[in-house]
Amino acid sequence: MSLHENSPGRGGWKGRLAGPWARRVRRSDLERNANPISAQEDVLKSLVERAGDTAFGMDHGLAALARMDCAEERAAAFRESVPLRDYEGLKPYVERVVAGERDVLWPGKPQYLCKTSGTTSGAKYIPLTGDSLPNHIGSARRALLHHVANSGQAEFAGGKMIFLQGSPTLTPTPGGVPLGRLSGIVAHHIPSYLQRNRLPSWETNCIEDWETKVDAVVRETAGQDLRLISGIPSWVQMYFERLLDHTGAATVKEVFPKFSLFVFGGVAFAPYAERFRELIGGDVSTVETYPASEGFIAYQDGAPGEGLLVNAHDGLFLEFIPANEYGSPDARRLGLGEVELGVNYAVVVSSNAGLWGYDLGDTVRFVSLAPARVLVTGRIKHFTSAFGEHVIAEEVEAAMSRAVQASDARVVEFHVAPQVNPGQGLPYHEWFVEFSEPPTDLASFAGSLDAALQERNPYYRDLISGAVLRSARVTALPVGAFHAAMARRGKLGGQNKIPRLANDRTMAEQLLGHD
To answer: How far apart are the C-alpha atoms of 306 and 283, rounded to whole Å?
Structure first.
């Protein structure tokens, strides 16, 4: 269906204007990203020029890098001068920013500090500058416009939109920089022409307790003409379930007949697809994004599954470490001109927010090089390799999708952990699965999972065939088990993601109700 056929009278004036605007943005976006190598060379030069006189710049000789004529030599020298860092490595500089010092990581002070949950560092404070904010705000807008240009569907612009996100409440740091969650900060920059379409209300968005907030969102949205919903799939699923309980409706489409677009990011949607189809009462279009507090890395610009367009020109200098080299002192940091298709890479970012050689902890796989497009495959620290198999999130998600399609089961959530010391017999992978509809034959379901994972991961297959491991076991969990486990971890809602797999049994024990 073309935009001309689809939008007049359905999306109102916003829908009618969206089509031509979307097509212009799409053309411009693809032109700017057609040569990602050149774009990245320009980004790195700009970053080291701007930050040369900062405290970090002087400590790492960035001004000298800016004077280099050869882009390849500059990139090589940058990697020599700026080592790979996680948050702990950058923390001494961030603490100076929090205290109010200027010109530390980027000229001046950041406009905001974004608070995220750390694993070893406690709370993390990621700077957002006046230069970096357009990356976050513009990328989300461009993702929607690409959808309009590709599909001709703009009617969502004429109705209400909901963004399940963190509180927009900001608090000052000792140095006077406002502090908040990324999604809450972005809420302060929603264009005025969308504010009247946006739900929930400011007051509801400011509720800190997630369960109280979701219930308030349900009450506030139940009678509205909701057409676009955005959020992490696990928490949107929770919203849908409570919405149906509140309204007594059989499907979300009964409550929101014109709901047509789901925007998500951070996790794969495929494992949720069947449950969403059941809750919604059919299919809706989806748009996938790859946002992080450290930068909006990529977004869907084509059909689902074709990869996410990498922001090669948008203030982010990106490097990629082959996943099988991660953690090695000799691990290579590759630019967009050096990566290969089909290889898993850990993502490293330097940016106009003042991040330098920063290890995001995510893994991606390239499906196109010019323009650069990636699939997000998981977290570098979320894997199962107790026996040398190195199973990653992408593999278990694909296995679960295969098993669900081959059965009558409906899955709410799942997590995979190794069982290294079983009471008897060989060790195995244990899949903890919360079903909305359990399979008729749990053993057959477990066999489908195991066969699909062996097909995806040859190391795992060799361990099974070599009698080092026995086939996977599925532990069915009661409804609400994942919700309770995340509550125990203090990770309910917002930007928190449920770990698909782990190399230990910490999450497994929490799922079983043990602290």
So the answer is: 19
pLDDT of residue 17: 64
Class in CATH terms, 1-379: alpha beta
Question: Do 346 and 362 meet the contact criterion of CB atoms below 8 Å apart?
Answer: yes
Domain boundaries, the chain: 1-379, 383-511
Phi, psi of 391 (to 5 degrees): -80, 135
Give the pLDDT band (50/70/90) at residue 379: confident
Is the pLDDT at 7 greater than 60, yes or no? no
Predicted confidence at residue 4, as pLDDT, reads 32
pTM for this model (two decimals): 0.85
In this predicted model, what pLDDT tens digit does every residue of 275-286 receive, in sequence order?
A: 899 999 999 999
User: What DSSP character marks residue 121?
Assistant: S
Among 264, 276, 258, which Cα is nearest to 304's? 264
* Token output for 340: 């290969």
Angle at alpha carbon of residue 13, lines to 7 and 18, rounded to 5° = 60
Strand order of the β-sheet with 428-437 is 410-419, 428-437, 473-477
Out of 3.30.410, 2.20.25, 3.30.420, 3.30.300, select the CATH number for domain 383-511: 3.30.300
DSSP code string of 478-509? -TTHHHHHHHHTT--STT----SB-SSSHHHH
